[in-house]
Amino acid sequence: MLSVLQYDYRQIPLIHMVHDDDLVLLDAPDAAWFKVLYYFPWKNYQIYGAQYYDALYEFNIKEAKKRQERLGEQEDQISETHEQAKQRLLFTRVTMGKYQEAANPSIIFESELPEPVYELPKIDPESISPGVVPNRLGGKKPKCFFSLLKSFLGATLMGFPPEPEYVYLLLNSNPSFLRVCGFAPKNEKDEYCYQHVPGLRKLEQFDQIMTEWGIWQDLKLQEVKRNIESGLVKKEDELVADTTHYYAYSGFETVKYIDDKGKEQKKSQSKLTKSCRCENRETCEHPWILADEGAGTIVKSNKKMYWGHKASIVGFPRQGVPLDAVPISDAATFDGETLYPHVKKLFDDLPEIKSSIKRILYDSACDNKELKEKLQKDFGLELKASLNPRRKKEVAENLPRGIEKITPYGVPICLAGHEMDYKGMRYENEKFIYQAPKGSDNSSVCLTCQHKENCCPDSFITGRIINISFDLLPHIDTDDPPMAKRFKAIMTRRPSVERMIKRLKCDLSDDRLTKRGNVSFQAYLDKTLIAYHMLLRC
Ligand SMILES: [Zn+2]
Fold first, then answer.
1. Which of 132, 179, 197, 214 pairs with 92 at a CA distance of 20 to 30 A?
2. How far is the CA of 196 from the centre of ligand 1 (A)?
3. DSSP 58-88
């Protein structure tokens, strides 16, 4: 029975149990997850706990209403065949944007929050704490938000995908984990108690509410902000970005369609499904939907194709810290199109970093003049992208003597196979200047070269020096030549995004998704990023 006094003052714990294995885990260098959960700063999360309990209440009311509606009459639906639905859904995809009337489809996925239809008294964040849950009239006491949150983050910190089935497995197989999360083991004959370890369905429900009400997203943003505010993550003047793919948990089919020129085209698309539970779904009147909205064919540079979801990642290159990861609405979107909308979103979410950012690094997918101008104009950002030679061939004609060819990247190679070093340019003469490299003894490689007689017979110290006219390399930007040392030095920081991707995708979580749709994918990325930023503080 509840004491009436419970609402007037909070009982401090009378007995504090210390478990031996807790002490061992606190000392274990490989068990960072335990330390993070043991010293969990729950006060920072009270506000999200209150949001969660409010959402849970709304969720329960909505579920009850849905059950009633299902018993009652069904709404009228437009009936369409399976094939018609395929075509309709195909032409709503972002990568089919040119066929759509509405301008600017959202390249970055944006989830919609549920409409707050009910005017409910809100939970006071100060009134909840680990083990103290709100007691609304009717129904069972809910499971503790802090324990549920810790169990999801703990699973991620241990390197498991942040999904209910893995959390369930860990809670039921690791007593230290169960205890540090704040749950108690449940024996078969025990009656319901809110402190008992939750069942799989409760974990799924928690994850669903945190996802649909946007609480994972808010929490992610808060974690990043907190680490920047405290100075743990230092503001840099550069960003680095890239996309990465996760394997989809779905199959696809190839849909044929007629393009705007009347030609037949093909595109891979998620199979269709219905959200109803009708017995004969082929003929019932409910609308077809994509089984895995957002999944698409991703073509990597090695021509390999994957059926998956695509995420865009942005971070600080020097520290190698990811700041945001978002799903791309349609995974088949070309990489070069995702940067601008993601930068825009990042600056909306984290205005505090906007003024310090001067430059952004990307791979050759963003080597695009218009994009560079747009980022400069709208955000004052200099975009540095690896050169994309775009089917440019090497130059083999009209070359100075002794030079065999110039690569598409603007590097001349001499007859002896040496790459010439870029030295600079004479702008008024419109020429790039190169010099032969030095050998291991620090003297020019030309001095002992068998081609010296025909190439540079009079050069005794410097070795071969050549001028190449700008006209020979029209695709090289003379304002920012990619052969220059400065360009190369800046671009050495670009691969740090690959390490961020590995951290998020392999060390915390997994690159094989177990849920479908962009809403789940967004939550998956959010949970991983929350765990990452918590771990930074450890
Ligand atoms: Zn149906």
1. 214
2. 37
3. HHHHHHHHHHHHHHSPPPP-----HHHHHHH
pLDDT band at 118 (very low <50, low <70, confident <90, very high): low
Ligand 1 centre distance from Cα of residue 273 (Å): 10
Distance 72 CA to ligand 1 centre (A): 14
Residues 130-154 pLDDT 10s: 988 887 756 788 999 999 999 999 9
Report the separation in Å between the CA atom of 332 and the middle of ligand 1, taken as the mean of its atom positions. 30
Per-residue pLDDT, averaged over 488-510, amounts to 93
The pTM for the full model equals 0.88
What's the gap in Å between 285 CA and the centre of ligand 1?
Answer: 6
Measured over the CA atoms of residue 287, residue 290, residue 294 and residue 298, the dihedral's sign is: negative
**Gap from CA of 519 to ligand 1 centroid (Å):** 22
State in Å: Cα 277 to ligand 1 middle.
Answer: 6
Residue 469's beta-bridge partner residues?
431
Alpha-carbon distance of 268 to 271, in angstroms, equals: 9
Ligand 1 centroid–CA 279 distance in Å is 7
Query: What are the backbone angles phi and psi of residue 310, rounded to the nearest 5°?
Result: -115, 140
